[in-house]
Amino acid sequence: MTADAWAQRDNDLVNMRAAATNYRPLPHAPAGVLIDLRRGELVYHTVPAAQMIEAPQFASLPAVTPELAASPAVALGRPLPEGFRTMDAGTVVVTDRRVVFLGSRGKREWSYAKLVGLLHDGNSPYTLMHVVNRQRISGLYLPSASAPGFRFNLALALADARQQRPALIAQLDGMLAQHRHARPPQPALVTAANAPVTARVPGGVFSIAVVLLFALCAFGGLIQAVSDSTARRVADVSALPDISTAPGPSSSAGGVGENPTPPTAGPTVLATSAVPTGEVESTAAGTNKASVSPTSPRIPSPKPTTARPAPTSSAPRPAPTSASPKPKPTTKAPTPKKVDLCGAPQNPYGYNFCGGSRIYSPAAGVCSYFSCINNFSNGKGYMIECNDGMVSMSGGRPGSCSYHGGNRRTVYR
Q1: I need a surface site. Which of 122, 301, 318, 369 has the fewest CB within 10 A?
Q2: Three-state SS for 28?
Q3: Contact at 8 Å (CB) between 102 and 47?
Q4: Average pLDDT over every residue of 15-22
């Protein structure tokens, strides 16, 4: 068995186990099915298209037990064996007391109280039932997709009629445990260690190349940081003022009439304290020279100061308030009013049981308002409600709502 087939079988068993535990039959038949139910009779399942058949004379059939077929799948399109006759076509209804066939030629029923033999064929979708009040063995030939649902619901109805539903649930538990014990092994995961050497070398070379690339980038960033720091220091030194002492007036060998050598132009450095008064004398060349008395303290030369730029903030400037959009006040959406959906759950899509058009592409959130079956998204028809209140997307297709008591009504938009 492939992994996909195993998963499908597991899903079928889980669904049957849940239905056997939770399903409750209905006190009425689906709309359009004309059957006279007896007082207190409950409906389990309905198959809208089936054929009544008669089999050749068999010696006997297996005894009736609330057992299921070994597999819910039935061979597709397998014809009836030789010797079988098709008697009529119509609708099948499974109740807690009988199986009823409603055909164009009349009605045929198989009462559980008189049922002594039952056979579900494993190669063709037909079921034979032997009752003591009828000589010939007859039964039903169903569409292949409808046969699993019919067989399960018949087993459930028989179990309830004989008060054996706990035994049916225990049997399903055993089938599920046996199936999971035979789960196909998972394929082994292939890791890098399992790869051949030729496949691992490029990866190793690539990893080394990546590491070297990151190292080179980091080294380049370090060099750039050192270069930037050095450039900033050179710029700071070049910005310092020239504090070399200007040459004073030179005394030439000439007489008083000679002019002194003009001093070299340069920046003037101001002292932090004033020169004492009364100590300035005039030289022969007309140059003033300040002399400090021996008792006066020596005034130190002021240290040059370097002008530093004012620190600037790196934080981004806030955008003008006029360019910022003003938030608009929000208003709370009004609560939708409840509308009459003819029994359908309140939903924003207007899906109802009243009438309208069929729903072939439901809204994505439909299962938040309706109770959807497990494989709802796999349906290929239109949206319908099953007899157990859950919804399916297999409307108009054989076997819809097979494990949920059959079809009940259509959901409209």
Answers
A1: 318
A2: coil
A3: no
A4: 91
Strand partners, 220: none
Give the whole-angstrom CA distance, residue 297 versus residue 292.
8
pTM score, whole prediction: 0.49
The residue among 141, 165, 162, 1 whose CA lies nearest residue 71 is 1
Express each pLDDT in 63-95 by its tens digit: 776 555 444 555 556 788 888 999 999 999 999
Q: Which domains are assigned to the chain?
A: 3-181 (2.30.29.30), 340-413 (no CATH)
Per-residue pLDDT tens over the stretch 205-241:
555 655 576 666 666 665 566 556 555 654 554 554 5
Residue 189 identity (one-letter amino acid):
L
Cβ count within 10 A of residue 308: 8
Q: Which of 119, 142, 5 is nearest to 62 (CA)?
A: 119
Residue 407 CB neighbours (<10 A): 25
The letter for the amino acid at 4 is: D
Q: What gap in Å lies between CA 282 and CA 345, rounded to an integer?
A: 117
| φ/ψ of residue 263, rounded to 5 | -70, 155
Token duo for residue 168: 């049916």
Q: Give the burial string for 239-275 (b: 16+ CB within 10 Å, else e).
A: eeeeeeeeeeeeeeeeeeeeeeeeeeeeeeeeeeeee
Q: Are strands 288-290 and 391-395 parallel, antiparallel or unpaired?
A: unpaired
Distance of CA 413 to the CA centre of its chain: 27
Give the N- to C-terminal CA distance of the chain in Å, as an integer.
42
CA distances from 150 to 13, 33, 49, 202, 269 (A): 15, 16, 12, 60, 114
Q: What are phi and psi of 54, to 5 degrees?
A: -125, 135
